[in-house]
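User: Please fill in residues for this 661-position structure.
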């Protein structure tokens, strides 16, 4: 609707557009045009607002904020819209508006909107880049805490808390040296922080999935792998199973934790489903499995119903089961200690000694003072620790403490001898039987602990493990002689003499106890049995003194049990693999003849014929490699060194055999 008002030459023409927004409210846009001025107003709810004022930014509230409502004088030449249109402020605003319109005169509406869109896009890209850089910094903090095994959350994460937890405190610390992160912390929206516990869990999950994805790619590239599984209980008494993958890439042995999975049912069939599902969910093909390693529990190692048997039903008999050598060694020690009364009494005394000294701050202080006085130059372990039923290494550690700090322990117990328990421990530890047992067991367990640590090395292979077990067995066999026994007994007697010499004339009392070597009274045989019972073995000297008793009742029995258990639990395990590995080491002392080596290699290769390994090619190339001086002169002790030698001799056909062991 068009209307004209006013005098000629100074009229104002306005156009009215009605937009119905509801039944009670009309929004009307009115455009006033004329000579010599123009005025654009918006009519809203019975008031008028000047569009030019509002666009440029003038500050008259009547035409910008509240609106003009005096409709009687709206078209009065001396008031209303005509007065406003001729005002200086409106003319100045109009000039500014025209200048802006002239600057955009050469651009169409689409071009103007396109320019605004480009500006908005640039702003969003800059914000996106800033957000990504901040998220990367937060990811680095998550990776740092995860790698170090540190907890993320704090007990109180409020702004007023002095310590908000490792994650938030690490973010605050990094922000002190990173202005970009500090700017983000000061200006980010309240609903976008990237630091909530949900975001932390999501970041950890993303990192874990990325690691598992790369791990599955490496395993697929390796072509074969073995698994190591074990059960573990958490602090809430929940059962979990760990799945560890072992494979070879670039002649390097890799051992990585794939996943820790919660389990409820510990039967072999349930564990088998858990293992298979874990491998499948991580894109690891179970068809490439060539070996499996578990402990000796029946649900894991059972020949017919164990986990290893269930896995073989799926994969095949080539998925060889290997009883964990570290666990086997632990069983050897436990069997040896439990079978001998003297050894069992020694470790019982050590456990009581730990409970007496270490569980009392006052008694521990006395012990530390005695350490400074009597064992100032001693290196190594000096503090006792509690014994564990499943981890026998604590027994070896306590024996090391007693052997190194014997004088300090005796001095501390003597100072505390008014206590009945201290007096009883002192009487036991001064006896030759105890000291001799400590000396012998310390030496034996030192060998076995070294073997245990070696068996737990990540880069260890089955050939080196078998060789290490053989070496330790030879060492213990060397101790099984009367000369070696007498040497250990003399060492125990020397410790007793040093004890008396050290504490002679001091306030440490050692009298009143039978601590010196004494003759042993022979047990009298009843008259009715004298003709049919003997108290000693034929061709052996009867036991007449303490040395003979310890030699017969403790020294040789302990060594015999250890040697018997080592041979029983390690010998004959996966004989085909061990013989094949021994042949690949090119050590002439391992196999009897070259024919035996060739036969062992053929049987070894036959286990993995399903992987495309040719038995004939392996046999021929092994014979060629056996004639190579580079191999026979070096006599490699590990499969890694043997494999590198094979690669250097350009005979790679044998390499797939030893990769996963």
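Assistant: Residues filled in for all 661 positions:
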């Amino acid at each position: 609707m068009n209307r004209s008002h006013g005098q000629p030459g100074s009229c104002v023409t306005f156009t009215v557009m009605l937009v119905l927004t509801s039944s009670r409210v009309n929004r009307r846009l009115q455009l006033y045009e004329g000579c010599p001025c123009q005025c654009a107003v918006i009519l809203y709810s019975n008031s008028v607002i000047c569009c030019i004022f509002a666009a440029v930014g003038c500050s008259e509230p009547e035409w910008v904020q509240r609106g003009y409502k005096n409709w009687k004088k709206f078209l009065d030449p001396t008031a209303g819209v005509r007065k406003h249109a001729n005002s200086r402020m409106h003319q100045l605003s109009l000039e500014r508006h025209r200048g802006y319109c002239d600057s955009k005169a050469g651009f169409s509406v689409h071009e103007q909107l396109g320019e605004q869109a480009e500006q908005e896009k640039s702003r969003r890209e800059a914000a996106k880049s800033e957000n990504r850089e901040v998220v990367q910094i937060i990811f680095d903090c998550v990776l740092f805490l995860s790698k170090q095994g540190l907890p993320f959350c704090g007990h109180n994460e409020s702004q007023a808390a002095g310590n908000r937890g490792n994650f938030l405190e690490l973010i605050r610390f990094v922000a002190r040296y990173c202005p970009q992160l500090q700017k983000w912390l000061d200006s980010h929206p309240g609903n976008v922080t990237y630091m909530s516990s949900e975001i932390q869990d999501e970041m950890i999950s993303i990192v874990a999935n990325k690691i598992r994805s790369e791990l599955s790619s490496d395993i697929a590239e390796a072509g074969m792998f073995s698994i190591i599984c074990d059960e573990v209980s958490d602090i809430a008494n929940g059962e979990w199973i760990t799945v560890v993958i072992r494979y070879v890439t670039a002649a390097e042995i890799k051992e990585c934790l794939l996943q820790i999975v919660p389990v409820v049912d510990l039967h072999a069939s349930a564990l088998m489903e858990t293992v298979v599902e874990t491998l499948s969910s991580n894109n690891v093909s179970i068809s490439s499995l060539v070996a499996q390693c578990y402990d000796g529990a029946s649900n894991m190692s059972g020949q017919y119903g164990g986990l290893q048997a269930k896995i073989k039903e799926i994969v095949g008999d080539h998925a060889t089961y290997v009883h964990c050598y570290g666990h086997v060694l632990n069983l050897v020690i436990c069997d040896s200690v439990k079978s001998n009364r003297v050894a069992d009494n020694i470790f019982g005394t050590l456990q009581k000694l730990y409970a007496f000294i270490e569980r009392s701050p006052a008694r521990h202080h006395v012990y530390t003072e005695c350490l400074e006085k009597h064992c100032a130059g001693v290196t190594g372990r000096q503090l006792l620790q509690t014994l564990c039923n499943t981890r026998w290494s604590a027994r070896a550690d306590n024996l090391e403490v007693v052997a190194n700090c014997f004088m300090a322990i005796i001095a501390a117990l003597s100072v505390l001898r008014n206590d009945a328990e201290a007096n009883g421990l002192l009487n036991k530890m001064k006896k030759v039987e105890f000291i001799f047992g400590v000396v012998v067991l310390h030496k034996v367990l030192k060998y076995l602990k070294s073997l245990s640590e070696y068996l737990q090395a990540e880069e260890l292979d089955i050939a080196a493990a078998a060789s290490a077990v053989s070496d330790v067995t030879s060492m213990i066999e060397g101790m099984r002689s009367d000369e070696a026994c007498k040497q250990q007994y003399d060492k125990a007697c020397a410790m007793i003499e040093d004890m008396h010499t050290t504490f002679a004339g001091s306030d440490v009392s050692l009298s009143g106890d039978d601590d010196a070597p004494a003759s042993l009274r022979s047990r009298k045989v009843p008259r009715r049995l004298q003709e049919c019972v003997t108290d000693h073995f034929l061709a052996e000297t009867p036991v007449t003194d303490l040395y003979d008793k310890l030699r017969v009742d403790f020294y040789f029995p302990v060594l015999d049990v250890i040697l018997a258990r080592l041979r029983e639990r390690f010998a004959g395990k996966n004989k085909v693999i061990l013989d094949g590995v021994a042949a690949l080491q090119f050590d002439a002392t391992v196999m009897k003849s070259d024919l035996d080596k060739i036969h062992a290699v053929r049987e070894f290769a036959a286990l993995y014929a399903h992987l495309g390994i040719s038995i004939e090619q392996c046999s021929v190339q092994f014979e060629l490699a056996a004639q190579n001086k580079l191999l026979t002169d070096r006599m490699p002790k590990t499969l890694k060194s043997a494999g590198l030698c094979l690669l250097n001799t350009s005979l790679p056909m044998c390499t797939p055999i030893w990769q996963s062991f």
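For context: The chain has a mean pLDDT of 75.
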